[in-house]
Design brief:
Layout: E1 7-11, H1 18-29, E2 32-35, H2 36-50, H3 59-66, E3 69-74, E4 77-82, E5 85-86, H4 94-104, H5 107-121, E6 126-130, H6 133-137, E7 143-148, H7 151-164, H8 171-187, E8 200-203, H9 209-229
Parallel strand pairs: 1-6, 1-7, 2-6, 7-8
Antiparallel strand pairs: 3-4, 4-5
Helix pairs in contact: 1-9, 2-4, 3-5, 7-8
Length: about 230
């Protein structure tokens, strides 16, 4: 009998290290990496481009239902396609970063994205990362990790990411933005950011990427071993 492929859900606040860790874990296990945050960012980019006035328009639900977002592995990374257009770089702009939390609170948006995430991950063999995977999207995921890190550590990571793109940003400004994002994500009515009761907490403040990846891979291997011995 072949091994069941796992559903690995990695949740946590912004800049806690989810994306890089999930990508590398997926590579180690030969699984598909599903960046749910990138999906919300791509939709946010489309809404910003549409010129809608505010994020409460009923038209946003219609946009979400008719938008096609694809996540395509490419050269060890993940290419994000929005209606066929490669928007991998554009979705990481400061404008999208500021707006995505407001867009992701909308019920119609989340329902559309959750349906797509479940479709992509239903057969297992996936590493998903986001904010509501272990609580809403896949409450029965085989491995649940909740990643956390200090505000300063997260802000420094975001600062470095932007610097690599040629964007210089004040650390204090980034820390304030992250605090505001945390508050929005944790207090929203629809699928708030919270740790699943059975999730394993991983504080990445003082960990290297390799240490983070090794931790999650080890938990996955333990789960596979349990399956083999069942």
């Amino acid at each position: 009998m072949s091994r069941k492929k796992l559903i690995i859900a990695i949740d946590g606040p912004a800049a806690s290290g989810k994306s890089t860790t999930a990508k590398l874990v997926a590579q180690r296990l030969g699984y598909l990496h599903i960046d749910t945050g990138a999906m919300y960012r791509a939709l946010t980019l489309k809404i910003l481009r549409s010129g809608l006035d505010g994020f409460y328009s009923k038209k946003i639900g219609a946009i979400a239902e008719t938008t096609r977002i694809e996540l395509v592995p490419a050269n060890g990374s993940l290419k994000v396609l929005l209606d066929g257009e490669d928007v991998t770089e554009q979705i990481r702009s400061p404008e999208v970063t500021i707006a995505v939390s407001s867009v992701s609170t909308l019920r119609d948006v989340r329902q559309a994205m959750v349906r797509e995430q479940r479709r992509l991950g239903k057969d297992g063999g996936v590493v998903l990362e986001g904010r509501d995977l272990g609580t809403v999207v896949f409450p029965d995921a085989d491995v649940k990790i909740f990643m956390v890190a200090s505000i300063e550590a997260r802000a420094r990571r975001r600062q470095q990411e932007l610097l690599e793109k040629g964007i210089r940003t004040d650390l204090e400004t980034l820390m304030n933005e992250i605090r505001e994002r945390d508050e929005k994500d944790s207090s929203r009515d629809e699928s708030p950011l919270r740790k699943a009761d059975d999730a394993i907490v991983l504080d990445t403040s003082d960990l290297t990427i390799d240490e983070q990846v090794e931790f999650v891979v080890r938990k996955a291997q333990e789960k596979l071993a349990e399956q083999d011995n069942a």
